[in-house]
Structure formats: C-alpha cells, structure tokens
Amino acid sequence: MKKIFSLIYISIFIIGCQSNELPENQIEVDSLSIVDTIEIAPSYTVLNQKVGRNETFSDILTKYNVPVKKILQIAEVAKDTFDVRKIQQNKEYVIYLNEDSLKSISKIEYTVNPLESIIFDLQDTINVYRSRKPIKSVERQTSGVISGSLYETLQKNNISIILALKLSQVLAWQVDFYKVRQGDKFKVIYDELSVDDQIIDIGRIKAVYFKHWNQDYYGFYFQSGDVEDYFDEKGNSLRKAFLKSPLKFGRLASRFSKSRLHPILKYYRPHLGTDYAAPTGTPILSIGDGMVTERGYTKSAGNYVKIKHNGAYTTSYLHMSKFAKATSKGSRVKQGQVIGYVGSTGLATGPHVHLNFYQNGKAVDHLRVKFPSVKPIDSNLKDQYMSHMNILMNRLAVIPLGEDSVYSKTESVELTTNP
Ligand SMILES: [Zn+2]
C-alpha cells in the first residue's frame, strides 16, 4: 500500500513540476462580462503557489500584509480542523486576493493531498474547513500482450502501473509476476479512480483473464452477504492451500522451535523448520504449486530443493538422498509432485526431510500460520455466482487482444464522494 502511495506521490510530483513550468501563474478571474446580473460575483486575483523551504504559515500570510494578530486568530480558528504548523514544503496552495486597493486576502486553499484541501476563508469572519474532492470512478476494459515486463507494457500504453500491483494481488497463486514473459496476454475489467482527471488509484478489479506460460487463468470478483472474494470460472477460490506434510506417509519428528538441542551439534540452536521422518527413498512432495528456484547441496542441508510458490511463500526441502526428475532450476512443479527422495545427506542423524517454510522471506512455522480461506463458492451461492461469472466471462471474451498493444475502453462513469 505504501508503495502505491509513493507511486501516486511521484506522479503528482512530476505533474506538479510540469505545471510549475507554465510561465504564467497568475490568472485573472473576471465575471463582469456578464451584463445585467443583479449580483455581481466577486472578482479575485488568483495566485497558485507552493510552500517554500522552511516557510511557515505565518511567513506566507506576512507576505500578503496580514497582521500578526490576525494570523494568530486564523491559527486558533483552524486548530480543530488543521494544525497550521503542519504545512509542508512543496505543497500547493492557492491565494485569492480581493480586487480592492489593499489587495487583501479573501481565501487560501491549501492542498493536503489530491483528494483534500483546507480552505481558509478570511472574507468576513474567519472560517476554516476541509474540502474533499469527488472521486470519479470509471470502469475500464484493458487488454494487452506483454512485451518486456507487465510494468513496461502498461507504462508504454499510459495505463496506471498500480493495475499491475492489484493484478499481482488477485492472481498471486496463478501468475508469477516476476516471470511474466513475452507473449503472455491479459484482459481486465476494473475501476479507475481519478480526481481532477488525475488517476489516483485503481479501484476494484472485477474480472481478469491472464494467459501465463500458455495456461489460461480467470478471476472474478464476487460479493454476496458475508462472501467477498475472487473465484475462478468453476467457482474455486483463487487461493491455494498447502499440503500439511511433504510426505504421504511419514512421521512428524521435530517441530519448528526457536531453541532446540541440535541432535548432532549438541548445542541449543533454533530449528526453523519441521522434520518429517520416513525411510530413505520415500518420495518427497512439493506442498504447493510453484517454481524451483534452487537445487543444490550444502554441508548442512545436504541435497535440497527450494520452491517459490508465489510472491509471499517459499519452501525448501533438505537432506534428500536424490532429486526427482524435472526439478532443475526454473522447473514448474505442481502440488503433490515428487521433487526428491528422503535421505540423510548433510547434517542429519537419520533419514528425514526438513521442511523450511518462508513467508515474505522469514522462516515461519507453517503448521501455525493462519491462511485465508481457500474454500470454493458455497453451494447455495453457486447459481448466483455462475450467472454473475458468465456475464463477465462474455464481456472478457469480446475484449480484443491486439499484438503488442494495449486496448482500453471507458465503459461507464460514476461519481463517488470521498468518504
Ligand atoms: Zn530439521
């Protein structure tokens, strides 16, 4: 999430710099051209500014001859809405000057973020309030054939790269976004959120098709009652469960522990994995779909295989007597596929497999990790889901797929207010 915001921040910053290059910052708003109106709208000089280095709220107002006493009053009135000491360098603000001889300040609009600004109305009595901009939600259909990386393909075609981040969350189990390759294809129906025609985020991904390494994957968002999740074309959860054990038959010999007396080294050291004992030669199974990222030998691990399952989970299997076929580095493996055979290579007192389970790079006890639900759609919701899914499936089907290009179409526009 932090990443997304920094991306937004960067794009805003770039846009901000560009607008700053405009030679004229001063716009004259004149409504006197409307003749015969009883009420004449006030006329202002509008100044678009940015907070300078070490500049304070008081520095800014002093520049426009606001007396210190009034500055203190404004700060006091603002207190519950906005702490004026918190204004930040490079943030934009707009000054509205009265068209009178004094050129006194009528209003200041300080931009907190693209969604929100603080209005200091100094016209009569001082009034300070937050103003939130409406978020425009546009449903888009986008498709593409990958050339280079997904990021590059999206960027080249002016599609927010936040879409790639969101897709990688929805399809975490299906697509290895580090291994997206030339010729992979995607179609996606999603909401794009913008403020003042500036894209601020990707809303919900409603439906996605991804062809990855010649396999077709689908994901559909579905919500009914308490159920809110992504399912595939058959109603299965897009998430996969791991097998509890890498052995079909075997005995749990030693659990994950932060401190254990090592059977060979004879001193206490953490045992950051789980041991399953079985006779030499017993097949070792991958506990989930994934890709072999390492296969090798070390003095302590013996023969081992490491498998990356998705962006978050990796497992490794140690002390093998030998490797199974089709487990060389880069091979794709299925859940339950034999990847090697139990042995006692490396530091092992007897034949067993030591399983390491890494979550975001950190060794964890997989028998204690609470994984999100992997249940398929409930049988009483199945009909409702299938008709919902079929509509989206048909919509995906008609989205064209050009070679080396991204197709994008605006479906519907909906205005929502920033909560
Ligand atoms: Zn072990």
How do the helices and strands line up, and which of them pair or pack?
Elements: H1 2-20, E1 26-29, E2 44-50, H2 57-63, H3 68-78, E3 92-98, E4 105-113, E5 116-121, E6 127-132, E7 134-145, H4 150-156, H5 162-170, E8 185-195, E9 198-212, E10 215-224, E11 227-231, E12 251-254, E13 257-261, E14 268-271, E15 274-277, E16 283-285, E17 290-298, E18 302-308, E19 313-320, E20 322-323, E21 332-333, E22 338-341, E23 352-359, E24 362-363, H6 382-397, E25 406-417
Antiparallel strand pairs: 1-2, 2-3, 3-4, 4-5, 5-6, 7-8, 7-25, 8-9, 9-10, 10-11, 12-15, 13-14, 15-23, 16-22, 17-18, 17-21, 18-19, 19-23, 20-22, 23-24
What does this structure look like?
This protein has 419 residues and is an alpha+beta fold. The chain has three domains: 2-132, Roll (Nuclear Transport Factor 2, Chain: A), CATH 3.10.450.350; 136-239 and 380-417, Nuclear Transport Factor 2, Chain: A (Roll); 251-363, Glucose Permease (Domain IIA). It has six helices and 25 strands. The model is unreliable at 1-40 (pLDDT under 50). Zinc ion binds at residues 254, 271, 273, 275, 354.
